[in-house]
Amino acid sequence: MSVLERNNVKVAGAGARAMVFAHGFGCDQNMWRLVAPAFEDAFKTIMFDHVGAGSSDLSAYDPDKYGRLQGYADDLIAIGRELGLRDAVFVGHSVSAMIGVLASLSDPSMFSDLILVGPSPRYINDGAYIGGFDASDIDELLEALSDNHLGWSAMMAPIIMGNPDRPELGGELINSFCRTDPVIAKDFARVTFTSDNRADLARVTARTLILQCRDDAIAPETVGEYVRNNIPGSELIILDATGHCPNLSAPKDVIAAIRAFV
Amino acid sequence: MSETSERGGDDPGEEFEDLFNNAPCGYLSVLPDGRVARANARFATWSGFGQDAVVGRKLHELLSVATRIFFETNLSPLLRMQGFVDEVAMDFVTLSGPKMQCLVNAAERRDDAGNLLSTRFAIFLAAERRQYERALVDSKAAMERAAAAERENSELREQFIAILGHDLRNPLASISSGVRLLAQRETVSAKGQQILSLMQGSVMRASELVDNVLDFARGRLGGGITLARDANVPLTPVLEQVVAELRSIAPTRDIRSEFAIEEPVDCDRVRIGQLISNLLGNAITHGAPAWPILVQAYTHDEALVIVVANGGSPIDGPTMARLFQPFFRGDVRPKHVGLGLGLHIASEIAKAHGGTLTATSDAEVTRFTFVMPLRKTQAS
């Protein structure tokens, strides 16, 4: 299976330059459905699912490879090489912000611009560094994931049903957005929330924009400032939006910020 | 409808405000900026914070850390995309300390343009249900671990059998050629010749057992029975040789054969030989010595038919039902040595050829019938 099939890569848009959108933990490329189309007139837009999420090839999952964020970064590079990307724009949400950083360190020619949405180089507090969580919080999260994957497990076929509240969804599969394999999701949560990429930030050479929400329970503003202070020449914009997913809650603001930067 | 009936008849306890506040579930409405706009008294009591303290608070301050992360990374995107989530497990914090384990349905309220106005949460206490579900997940994990360990064990065991069987073949072949050399080239007394012939029979029987075990182990290991089909070579000589070998093993038995194979048969001749050898071995072991054993092989109506029939006591119902299962032995009288693999392997060979092996048994005769299509069919 090709990497494009493995990662369910979707290419759209007409531009000469490419813009790659990467989703974070907990969702899939649907995360970008309100943002990516806005760039189709000027860019070739590329969306994909990390292995284990959405419609990726679950059989490609290798616990060793994906036990480190570098494994996901290697996939991103493989997709970029397959599509012949050079000097492209990378837009990564949440943990994919760091995956993009790692990819750009491995192959600096692939992305000229990095746009990091709600990035965190380390979620767990460490001395003076405030990541926002204690190690025990993350252990509790890993435990708790099982509670919600009961009904969401890959074993259960998604149910097709009408949704009277959102008729525009029609017969779309309920909970088909952001479907993840429960076992892989747990691994992904572990690697996401226990990674420490602080030392990688200083080596970034791409132009970098950091987008941060005003009230993000996952990546506090101080973490955004930390990333800005450590990636040379980077710029930080605080969006007037709350939560961890401005790509869904404030897509217009995200689009405007990206457009102004590129 | 009059105003009073809308408000719950004449009972002042059934007014909307009371229905909201004292509903048997918690109820929160949360604004797009994450602040709680309204909370019912039930939720306020459960959490211990009091209604005034809950309203205006950030939703994520009411959630346990794990739920907060899960909500932000998984539930919140799903809510934005499909407008609701049902039956999700969430933990709320309480004033007194212990987490409040709940199941929650949530739905967004949007304006005509699709902008989010608020998100409403119906919250049900579900400590016992959650505990039960956690136990279910734990026991599933334990079961999977046990099954994996068992699979590994049984694979090892079968590999061991396969290797042992394979290694046994060589010394058996040496004994067999030694016996042949002694019988043909050396001067041996008549008594000695008789012993050598018995030995040859025993060696052959041992080789067959090894072959059956190997086939079985291979089948279990996923290799299945593989066929080397060839329609161009005649089958009859192979069958004749098998019958001759078994006659030499059981010289006291009357084994009659009738072969009429008039069309080419697209089969693996060695395998068909093994099948007929297993059936004959079975007839020799279980048939009454006083009755002849009849072996027939013929082509008829686009099919190859092989019948092995013997006299003796009929096979009873329970035995018949399990006849082709591995390691099944109808009776375990001392003379009936063997692993109980012969008929199982024979039936596997039949299946591999797209054919069937069936048995009938009554007071007069026990008959095994193998039927296979002359040519390979799509299904096989």
Written description of the protein model:
The complex is a heterodimer of chains A (262) and B (380). The longest helix of chain A has 14 residues, at 69-82. With 262 residues, chain A is of the alpha/beta class. Chain A has helices at residues 3-6, 69-82, 95-106, 135-148, 182-194, 198-201, 221-230, 246-249, 251-261; strands at 10-13, 17-22, 43-47, 88-93, 111-117, 207-215, 235-242. Chain A has a single domain, classed as Rossmann fold. In chain A, helix 3 (95-106) links the parallel strand 4 and strand 5 (111-117). A 7-stranded mixed sheet of chain A has the order 1-3-2-4-5-6-7, sandwiched between helices. In chain A, helix 2 (69-82) crosses helix 3 (95-106) and helix 4 (135-148) runs antiparallel to helix 5 (182-194). Chain A is 33% helix and 17% strand. Chain B is α+β, with helices and mostly antiparallel strands and 380 residues long. Chain B has 3 domains: 3-125, Beta-Lactamase, CATH 3.30.450; 147-224, Orthogonal Bundle (Helix Hairpins); 226-380, Heat Shock Protein 90, CATH 3.30.565.10. Helices cover 47% and strands 20% of the residues of chain B. Chain B contains 11 helices and 10 strands. In chain B, the strands form 2 sheets. Chain B has a 5-stranded antiparallel sheet with strand order 2-1-5-4-3. Chain B has a 5-stranded mixed sheet with strand order 6-7-8-10-9. The longest helix of chain B is centred in the middle third of the chain and has 59 residues, at 127-185. Chain B is elongated and about 110 Å long. The two termini of chain B are 73 Å apart. The chains are: A alpha/beta (262), B alpha+beta (380). Chains A and B meet through helix 4 of A and helix 5, strand 3 and helix 6 of B.
